[in-house]
Structure formats: structure tokens, C-alpha cells
Amino acid sequence: MSFSMGMKSMTAAAVSAAMLIAVAACGTTDSATSDTSNGDSGSSSKTSTQGFDTSSIKKDDAIAALLPDSVAGDGTLTVGTDTSYAPAEFLAEDGKTPVGFDVDLSKALAAVFGLKEETVSSTFDSIIPSVGSKYDIGISSFTVTKERLDAVDFVTYFKAGSTWVTKKGNPDKVDTSNLCGVKVAVQTGTTQEEEVTAANDQCKADGKDEIDIQSSKLQTDVTTAVASGKASVFYADSPVAGYAIEQTGDTLAALGDDTGVTPEAVAIKKGDSATAEAVQKAMQKLMDDGTYQKILDTWGVSSGAIDKAEINPAVDE
């Protein structure tokens, strides 16, 4: 995954209000769960932004022992994430509490390690360079690519494709097979931005009009660009696109089928094999005991589930 999140401008107000309350879903997603049982009352409901309760997850001493002191020494698992990418990671109604299925998975990992969890908000493109220094790990819908594998080690935990989104009815008649001259919104630093940039290079090589690439740090700004008519189409991870469509009511719609379903992964400092092994074993434990599936079900993204956490999977060149 790869788009940005956040909402700052007055123009984004209408879309932003909805996105702060919700949870993005995959283009191939289920609908987000809004009612879950709450232990004491048996049937009291809670909004999906409250997420999954990880308080009952127990420490696994054998897995925790794998973590180096550089990670476990201060008793906290510090996780870098771009909290504008609902439903994976975004801010709750208070505008400051990180929520989302990636956040719940971060908390679950920390619980297996016997650590406190701290999610630190950052811009998407600044997280990977800071893993191992500012952050113990990065969990922010990172699609596994060869370029990123050169910078960090990865442990897979999810899968997602990419989705094109226009205003409902595609009023600008966008044809994704020919984007030359089209206004396209993307999030900075994402694989989608790379794809659109490559398409633009081809437009120039063919002597056609260039793509008007509108790159924004925050995914919410990307969504708003299309909803407001500033751009004709945006390209994002399928869970994010699905959530944006749901939260803007009848404003937006997917264009065509999802493309390029690929794994998403936890980013770990390059060469830190001990942390990579600990994260892989902890994630696999959560998958095997059903906690992982419950977290995805809570957020309505179970169609992105995988059953095996893998270190540094092979990727296409």
C-alpha cells in the first residue's frame, strides 16, 4: 500500500469529516464492522474506530526473548506510521488517537513481546529511512518492492491491490489505458505514484500531452482532489480506495478492476535479523491463534488476509 493521509485544508473539510470517523476498506473488502460485543454488557455496541481489544493477548516468553535490547530495552515497541490511510492507520474522532487495523496489529505484536506500544505519526515517505533509529519498526501499508527491500527487511502480513477511483459515473471519461493529458492524484512516495510517473514518461516519449500528476503527502488530500474536481482520477491501495468510496457516499466510484495484488509488510532495519525473526514468529502466532483474523474482521478487511508471515519475500524485478 502506499497513499497518504490527513486533512488540513478547508477544501477537504467535507471529505475529511467522514474520513476521520471511518475505516477505509479494500476494493475487495468486506464492510467494516461497527457493532461488536463488549465483554461486560454482552451486547453493547462500539464504533469500528475503537478497534479490536488487544488487552487479553499474553506475552510469549520464547518469542519475546528473540528481540534485541535495542528494541526491547526501553519496554516500548515504537511504530512509525502515516495516520492518514484509513482503514489501515488513521486518527479517531478526537483527531489525535491512532486507530486502524495496522494499529491493532502493532498493539497485538507488542503484547506478544510483553511491551507497551507507541504509534508515532509521520509522513509516509519518511518512515522507511527512520526505521531502526526513530522507530523500532514501521507498519504503514508498505507494499513489498525490490527498491524497498534494498532499504529495509520486511515481514509480510497482508495483501492488497491498487484501485483507480473517479467521481461516480466517470464524468471526465477517464481511460486508464491512456492517461496522457489526464489530471491524476497520487500519494507521494507510493508505488502508485511510481506507476503513474512511468506512464507519464511513456506519454512524453510518444509525443503526447503529459499527465498532470498531483502528488500529495496525505491520502485524504488525494481523495479530496477527485471529490472536489481538482483531479479526474486517483490511484491508491485497494483497501484505502474502498474506504474512500464508502465514506464519500455517492461521490466516488471504482474504475475497472483492482490491479497488481501484492503483499504488504512490516518494515525492519536492514540486517536486523533478530527483530525480523521475532516479528515473523509473533505475526505467525497471531495468525495461527485467530487473533489476526479477528482484527481484520473488526475492520472489514478480511479479504486481504494471508496465512503465512514471511521474511523478505521474492518480488518481481
TrEMBL record:
Residues 32-54 are annotated as: Disordered. Residues 76-303 form the Solute-binding protein family 3/N-terminal domain. Keywords: Signal. Residues 1-24 form the signal peptide. Residues 32-49 have a biased composition (Low complexity). It comes from the Bacteria. It holds the Pfam family SBP_bac_3. CDD domains: PBP2_MidA_like. PANTHER family: ARGININE-BINDING EXTRACELLULAR PROTEIN ARTP, MEMBRANE-BOUND LYTIC MUREIN TRANSGLYCOSYLASE F. This is Glutamine-binding periplasmic protein.
